[in-house]
Design brief:
The structure holds 2 protein chains of 2 kinds. Chain A is of the alpha/beta class. Chain A has 2 domains: 4-236, Rossmann fold (3-Layer(aba) Sandwich); 254-334 and 418-509, P-loop containing nucleotide triphosphate hydrolases (Rossmann fold), CATH 3.40.50.300. Chain A has helices spanning 44-51, 74-79, 97-102, 113-127, 142-155, 172-187, 199-205, 228-236, 295-302, 325-330, 342-346, 353-358, 373-385, 402-415, 432-447, 459-465, 488-509, and strands spanning 4-15, 18-29, 33-37, 59-64, 67-69, 82-85, 160-164, 191-196, 208-213, 216-222, 254-264, 270-280, 284-288, 310-315, 318-319, 335-338, 420-424, 451-455, 468-473, 476-481. In chain A, the strands form 4 sheets. In chain A, strands 6-7-8-3-9-10 form a 6-stranded mixed sheet, sandwiched between helices. Chain A has a 6-stranded mixed sheet with strand order 16-17-18-13-19-20, with helices on both faces. In chain A, a hairpin with a 2-residue loop joins strand 9 (208-213) and strand 10. In chain A, helix 13 packs across helix 14 (402-415). The N and C termini of chain A lie far apart (57 Å). Mean pLDDT of chain A is 86; it is low at 499-510. Classes of the chains: A alpha/beta, B mainly alpha. The A-B interface holds A 14-18, 56, 68, 70, 72, 303, 305, 324-330, 337, 339, 341, 343-351, 355, 358-360, 362-363, 365, 368-370, 399 and B 1, 3, 5-9, 215-220, 223-224, 227-228, 230-231, 233-238, 344, 348, 350-353.
Amino acid sequence: MQNIAIQMEKITKSFGALKANEDVDLTVRKGEVHALLGENGAGKSTLMNMLSGIYIPDSGSIFVEDQKVTFTSPRDSIGLGIGMIHQHFKLVDILTAKENVVMGQKAKKGSRDKDLSKEIRDLSDMYGLDIDPDKKVYRMSVGEKQTLEIIKVLYRGAHILILDEPTAVLTPQEIEKLFRIIRNMRDRGCAVVIITHKLNEVMEISDRVTVLRKGRAVATVDTADVNVGTLIEMMVGKKVDLAIKKEKGQEAGELLTMDGVEVRDKDGKNALENISFELKGGEILGVAGVAKSGQKELCECIAGLVKTSKGRIFFQGENIVGKTPGDIINLGIRMGFIPEDRLGMGLVGSMDIVHNIVLKDYKGQPGIFLKRGPCARKAEKIVKALDIMTPDIYTPVKKLSGGNIQKVLLGREIDSDPKVLITAYPVRGLDIGASYKIYDLLNEQKQKGVGVLFIGEDLDVLMSLCDRIMVLCQGEITGIVDPDQVTKEDIGLLMTGGPLEEEVEHDKNN
Amino acid sequence: MIKITKKAALPKKQEAVIQVIAIILSLACAGIVILAMGYDPLEAYYRIVEGSVGSTMRIEQTITKAIPLIIVSMGILVAFKMKFWNIGGEGQIMMGAFGAALVALNFPDTLPAPIMILCMMAASILCGAIWAFIPAFFKARFGTNETIFTLMLNYIAIKFVTYLQFGPWKDPNSGGFPKIETFSQNAQLPDFLGTHSGWIVAILSVAFLYVYINYTKKGYEISVVGESLETARYAGMNIKAIIISAMLVSGGLCGLAGMIQISAVERTLTYSISAGYGFTAIITAWLGRLSPPIVMIVCILFAMLLQGGAYIQVAMSIPSSVADMIQGVILFFVLGSEFFMQYKISFMKRPGSKKEVA
C-alpha cells in the first residue's frame, strides 16, 4: 500500500436533485499519470473539487497516503500536498510570476526576494519548467501562465497534482511541452491526475484511466490495454460511429465576403485586423485558433453586434457594414447565428421553447399583438425533427440539457432557411452523441448549399468536418488551408506562428 | 457545521405552500411585537379585518386606498419586468398630480366635466411619463444607474409641488393657510357604485397591463430585455427604444394615479398626495411576482392592512404604525422564504474535528 497517493471510496455528492457523483471509487498511485475521462457533466470536476477541498462529499471517505482525511477548505487539501490547477487560471495579471507564487502564503521568516527567485528557479530546473520569475503575468502566453500555475502549486509543496482540462487553451506545440512536464513530474514520484474528455490525450499521456459516466465510475483500466474505441464505449455506454462525414456540397457562388475588416476592442486595441476571406455556398469553412484570437469578434461583426472600424462585409454583394442585427433582419438577409454563449445571447433561458422561437419571428408579424400559434407549430416541428428531449414545448429552455438547448437554438436558426450559418463552438459542452447530431445537421445544411462558418476548438473535428480551415492568431488570419493537405502540427504552427515572430521583432525594436 | 446547498426547482404548489407558511410566520412574529406592546395580537388582527371590511363604509375606504396602489403597482410592474428598478413612483405620482392640477386650475369652470376629466387624465399621464422619461433616457443613452436617479427625482418632484403649494399656487382666499384652491366641481371625479369611479381606471389598468405584458410584441420585448440584454441585441431589438417606451408606460400609470388622488380624494393638489404609494407599490409588485392579477390581489390585501391599521388606532389605541410594521415583517418573511425555495440547509458534524465541544 506504500505507493498509493490517494484513495477515494464510495464518494457521493449531489446538487439538489442532481447526483453529480455516486459511489465513486478512485485510486491514484504515486508515480503515475491518471486520466479522469468522461463527457461533460459526468462528474469529473466535481470529484476533483472534493479532493481539493472546494466541495465536501455527502458521503464516502478520502484517504491521502493511507490517512483518512476530511477537508473543510482548500487549505486543508493544500496542506496535505494536493494541488489543483484549474481550467481558468487564478493569477493576478499585473504582478510578476514570483509575486503570484508567494501570494496568499504566510511569509517564511527572513525570506528574501533573491532567495525566492532562486527557489523558483530550482523548482523549475527540477521539473523542466521554463519560467522567468520576474516576468509580469500579462506579458505571458497562455502556456507560460499554465506553467506558472504548476509552479505555484509545486511551491506550496504539492506532490499530488490535479489538472482540470489543461489542454483546452493550448496549441499542439504547447500541449507537447505540457506533457513533457507532466512526465517529468511522474518520474520524480508525483501523482498526476488529468481531467479531460479528449481521447487522444488520454492514450498519449496517461498510465491508467478511470472513466466516469453520469456520476458513476465505470471502470479503471491500464491505458495500454485499451484503445480509443473501447474508451468511447465506456464513456457513452454504447458503440458510436466515430467518422464525421465529409461530402462535397453543391458548389455555389460566394455568399459572404470580408474585405479588410478591422474591429477594435474596448481598450481600442485591434481585436481583428485586416480580415479578408470569402465564404462560398455549400462549404463548411472552419475557423481554428487559440481561445480569444478574435473568433467572438469575427462572428459578432458579421452578425452586426459589434462595430467594425475598417473594411467591408458583403452579403451576396450587398455591403452590410454598419447594419445592426435589427437592420439585417429587416433587410431580409438570411443569416443564422449560433453564438458561443447560448443562454446568454441566443436564447432566453427562463422562457419556453415557443417564446424562444418567437424571438426571431415576431418582427415580421403584422400588428401589435404577438402571434404564438404559428410559432407553437414551428416549435413542435423542430422538436420532432431534431429529436429534442423535452416534456413539452412549454418547458423553459434552461431546464433542458446542454445538447437539447443547442438543438433548440440550431433548430430555430435552420428553420429560418439561412443562406449563411455562423456557428461559434456549437458542440461545446455537448456529449458525444449530441455532437455528432450537430455535425450531421451542419452537413445537411451544406448539402442544401448553405455556407457554414464553423468556429471550433478541437482540431481533429475541424479537420474531418471542414472543407477549408482558416486559422486566426491574435486577430489576424495566418492562413487558410485545405485540411487534406496539411497536418495538425501545421495548423498548430499557424495558430501561434506569425505573431510570435512579430513579437520578437517588436522586442528588438524596443 | 451548516451546509447550504442548492435545491432542485420546486413545483408551483409547494412554492405556494412555503409562501403561505411565510405569511403565517410573519403574522406570528408581528403578533409577538404587538403582545410585547401590551395588546392582544389576535384581537388586533381581528380588528384590522373588521376595520377594513366590517361595514360598507369601511369597505369603500379600503377600496379608495386600493385604487391608487393598484394603478401605481401596475406602473412599477412594467419597469420591474424589464429589470429597470423604478423607485421613482412617488415622484411620478406627484408630477402626474401636478399636470392634472395645471389643467384643473387653468381651465374655466364652464368646461363640461367629462372633457375636463379626460384632459386632466391626459395631462397627468403626460407629466408622469416625462418624469419617467428622464431617467430612462439617461439609462438608455449613458447607462446611468436608474435606482439612484429615480429616487432623487422623487425629492425634486415633492419639493417642486411643496414650492407651488406654499408659493405661487397658494390660494389667496385661504386666509394665509398654505393650501391650493379646491378644484371646481367639473374637475372632480364622480362617484360610481359607492366609491369614486377611480376603481374602473384601476381595473382597466390591470386588464391593460395583463394584455400588454402577455399578448403584445412590446410586452414580449420588455420581457426579453429584462431577461437578457445580449439576447435582445442578438434578436435585433432596439433596446434604447424599448427601455424608454416601457418607462413612459410606467411613469404614465403612476401619473394617472396622482390625478385620481387629487381629483377624487383630496380635490386639490398637496405635497403629501403620493402618500408612500410609490414605495408600497414596489413591495406589492414584488410580492405579486410581477403578474398583474396577483399584484392586484396583493394590493387589495395591503389596502386592508392600511385601512385596518388606521382603525385599530381608534378602536384599540394601538399606533397605526403597527400596520407598517406588519407590512415590513410580511415582506421580510416572504423574501426570506425565497431563499428556502432555492436552497436546502443541513447541519453536519465535522468528523474528526477536535473543536467540537458538545
